[in-house]
Amino acid sequence: MLAGLKNSATAPVPHESEIPATNRRQFLKASAAVGAGLVIGVVLPQAGNKIAKAAAPAGTAAPVNPNAFVRIAPDSSVTVLIKHIEFGQGTYTGLATLVAEELDADWSQMRAEHAPADATLYNNLHWGPVQGTGGSSSTANSYTQMRQAGAGARALLVLAAADLWGVPAGEITVAKGVVSHAASGNTAGFGELAERAAEMDAPAEVTLKDPADFTLIGKDVPRLDSRAKTRGEAIYTMDKTLPGMLTAVLARPPVFGATLASFDDTAARAVPGVTDVVAVPQGVAVLAEGYWAAKNGRDALDIVWDETTGETRGSAEIMAEYKGLADQPGDMVRSEGAVEEALASAATVLEADYEFPFLAHAPMEPLDCLVQLGPDSCDVWTGSQIPTVDHGAATAISGLKPEQVRVHTLLAGGSFGRRATPNADMVSEAVSVAKAIDGRAPVKVIWTREDDIQGGRYRPMYFQRLRAGLDAEGNLVAWHHRIVGQSIIRNTPFADALIKNGIDQTSVEGANNLPYAIPNMAVDLHTTDVNVPVLWWRAVGSTHTAYSTEAFLDELAEAAGRDPVEFRMAMLKDHPRHAAVLKLAAEKAGWGSPLPEGRSRGVAVHESFASYVAQVAEVSIDGDGQIKVEKVVCAVDCGLAVNPDVVKAQMEGGIGYGLGAILHDAITLDGGRVEQSNFHDYLPLRINEMPEVEVHIVPSAELPTGVGEPGTPPVGPAVANAVYAATGRRIRQLPMALHGLTGA
């Protein structure tokens, strides 16, 4: 059989984009029938072999391998097992690019699928023994690891070819998915060598390419997931079904912290299609043969809630408490020099208060989770952002052993942090409901849009007070920043890692590492207790600290009689990457050049997730207070851009997401009840509001850093500063709609 490999090269298999929609499923079935030949990785060969064997269809050769990152099939297709969820940020494409580069594969060969939930193999290298996606870390923490996986696979293929052809390994080359030996004329595709490669001893070390030799990294390779998504063929949790599946919709307490007292399900059970009504720790679940029956049944419940332990305050009352706390010193976060003395002797002192509301994540695909519970197994299908946490919750609730629980990560229609709850809320609900009916049927729990908007896990409400002093020459000599708000980390499994000396680092990021050279600086924090569940939201603490610091800096620049860009640049001499993006954005935006009548500019620069972003916003405002953000020029330094087109897309998406928040988004409470319920009163940015976005990537040889979130923080203050330039109004309370300024 092996003799036929000489002088033959396997043609690349069709890329997903080349598969006709009418027979894609037949293609996948045929591919599965062929089986996989090799799974490659970096470490832990036995674990990789077990996964490969479990994945092999009956009657086919099981893939064998040193690990579980790269799978090479007999048809020469290369599947990269992605340990981070793909929810639109380009993880499938980015991580597959790293493997393909070192493997010298042709891009048409590449495939991607989510890795199984197994933190021993697939942990986030930035998070320790936890598998998860967040903090804009997917590419940053996987960059070297995935390149090593690709290089390891290549090395094994080369060894296999050398063994097969009886030639020195050093004479063998690999290019575009073909292994060749020039002297003998022998060639082979990856698939033809996979079985033999699986028998080779993996090299202890592999040599990675010099970046000068990259052919894929740094290029705009097509996304692996685009065609399936645009054709409606990609499978999300909302699409996933199982035979006999029931749909569940829950009634949850109307105020946070309330508990179930009693309920009457007579009317709910009378709804056609309703099969069960069960009480679970999270509320009351109505199960039915379809979604609408379940929802109508849920709406027909007559429930009495005990609200004695619930949050009964409104947003105004909570903010009033925050303002009172801001009059007192908080826990010290950063202290340099003598701030109070410097303020007392300053030629000019400015003070400003900033108010930030609760914000919902509002992903386009509402929360959902499918569970099949058996006497000795529990399978969970969901867009899992932290599989380790979701697996732990499913294990605890089901009462099964960890090895009996499997979490299958599916594509997700957005998250922005919402699918990464420390208590695994959507998984906990689904397993609880399945257990309540004794696993009689698979159960899919679906949150309605209203459930999601009103269900908590918000970006916290914050109040911030900033004071600063200028000397007679207009130099910033003192800075004091006080932050008041909830901790998203307190009472979670992440508290030990992220709360130091009582300080939740996510509350103060962006303030505690302010890059400007200010001789006297202090940052302190009041952490509040509010019975509203809160969570990380795209860019986390930087979503509010960037706004307050960069908007206040503009006020100081004006008081000093200095240009806002020059004022910042003068204080960034020790931070060249901040300065470089600020300079680039200003140049590309034509900072200082005349604008058409009725337009104005504003600028902001911010570092988050080790990436540096500067933005110049150009806005117009009509006589009715309609804001039109006409253009945003964005400069980003994210280290090496693995795929520049994906980086640009993430900057564009982050800008759009941030604009919706600062223009008109807010979650408000009245007597503890959330007032918003859907997209009619909690408005994501509309397509007509999206500005022209121009993204410029700073060339860099540094390791890649985050791109999923850093585009969001600077857009708010850049727009606010432009609004001031146009109107003379400082917007210190968000959203801008509160001040009669709305998106056009």
TrEMBL record:
An MF annotation (GO) of this entry: oxidoreductase activity
Pfam families on file: MoCoBD_1, MoCoBD_2, TAT_signal
Gene3D superfamilies linked to this entry: Aldehyde oxidase/xanthine dehydrogenase, a/b hammerhead, Aldehyde oxidase/xanthine dehydrogenase, molybdopterin binding domain
Aldehyde oxidase/xanthine dehydrogenase a/b hammerhead domain sequence ranges: 231-309
SMART domains reported in the protein's UniProt record: Ald_Xan_dh_C (SM01008)
Superkingdom as given in the UniProt entry: Bacteria
SUPFAM superfamilies according to UniProt: Molybdenum cofactor-binding domain
UniProt protein name: Xanthine dehydrogenase family protein molybdopterin-binding subunit
Organism: Pelagibius litoralis
